[in-house]
Amino acid sequence: MLPFKLIYADGYDLNLGAHVFPSQKFRMIRDRLLEQGIAERSDFLVPEPAADEDVLRVHSREYVRKLKTGTLSEAEIARLEVPYSRELVEACWLAAGGSILAGQCALRDGWAANIGGGFHHACPDHGEGFCAIHDVAVAIRRLQHDGGIRRAMVVDTDVHHGNGTAVIFGWDETVFTLSIHQENNYPFFKPPSTVDIDLQDGIGDDDYLGILEKHLHKAFQDFAPQILFYIAGADPYREDQLGGLALTMEGLARRDALVFEYARRNGVPVASALAGGYARRVADTVSIHVATIAAARDAARQSARAGA
Ligand SMILES: [Zn+2]
Asked: Which of 14-18, 121-125, 172-176, 220-224 is predicted least confidently?
């Protein structure tokens, strides 16, 4: 049994068919965690969809209305880069509910993982880059609204810049955002996060980990979050179809362990979400996301030992 909860719903599947976004990965990750004995059925919680009230703390009323009534323009759907469907909308509300629940569980248990979400390109008034609703921002706003936290940190290691996160929290001193990404990649315009780490093409494990550690060290010196949301994209992998970095699976596991180690040392609860992953073999993307959960398990056990 894991020392924390995993949040998952079958409805996370966006039903995209042959799209480059492998939306079947959510179910595959759940299955692999069970097959490998990393998790048991009782470790999983099924989220409720977010309430509209929660979504509206981040997104505009007009955009939410268009999403819910199927009245986005063709240009807006093109920018989203996924076909519009009823299932898509339900999946997004569910993912946001999942990140809210992950945040609540993390505050209670120290750790939690949403086996979904991480839709970091979604902006207040539009969706883009496969992301319609910014689940992590919705979760942070809900936790702040409930009074459970005031200060949150977002560490985003997806290969793509977290532009939605940067826009949403741009002027907000209660939320520290760090994005480490490939500079020469989507999105073209990268609004400033609190800390942006623009990486050159083809960076490998050791260089990446050295740079990340330096910035994590400084981030935790500068800011004392009450929760860390970790957006653990699988797409810095060297065989990713939409990424141009060169991390190995081992390097990605070390990346996860590094982020968790900083959170653990600073006594900060962690809620993680998946974000992107477009490896040529979907099974590789699944392996990388599963390894993030295994790294969280190891870090959580270590903090339990340290606290005992
Ligand atoms: Zn990505």
From this structure: 14-18
> Three-class SS of residue 37?
coil
Centre of ligand 1 from the C-alpha of residue 258, in Å:
20
pLDDT single digits (tens) 62-84: 999 999 999 999 999 999 999 99
CA of residue 158 to ligand 1 center, whole Å: 5
Distance CA(221)–CA(215), nearest Å, equals 10
| Helices marked H in 152-281 | 163-169, 205-222, 249-265
First-to-last C-alpha distance (Å) of the chain: 19
Strand partners of residue 7: 45, 114
Q: pTM here? A: 0.97
Widest CA span in the chain: 57
Half-sphere exposure of 11 (CA within 13 A, CB side): 18
Confirm if 297 and 2 have CB atoms less than 8 A apart: yes
Q: What share of the chain is helix, strand, coil (3-state, %, to 5)?
A: 45, 15, 40
Would you say the C-alpha torsion 216, 110, 54, 52 has a positive or negative sign?
positive
What separation in Å is there between the alpha carbon of 182 and the centre of ligand 1?
10
Sheet holding 152-156, edge to edge: 44-45, 5-7, 111-114, 270-273, 227-231, 152-156, 175-182, 195-199
Q: Ligand 1 centre from 120 Cα, in Å?
A: 8
pLDDT score for 201? 98
DSSP label at 38?
A: S
CA of 235 to the centre of ligand 1 (A): 6
- Residue 17 CA to residue 85 CA, distance in Å, equals 12
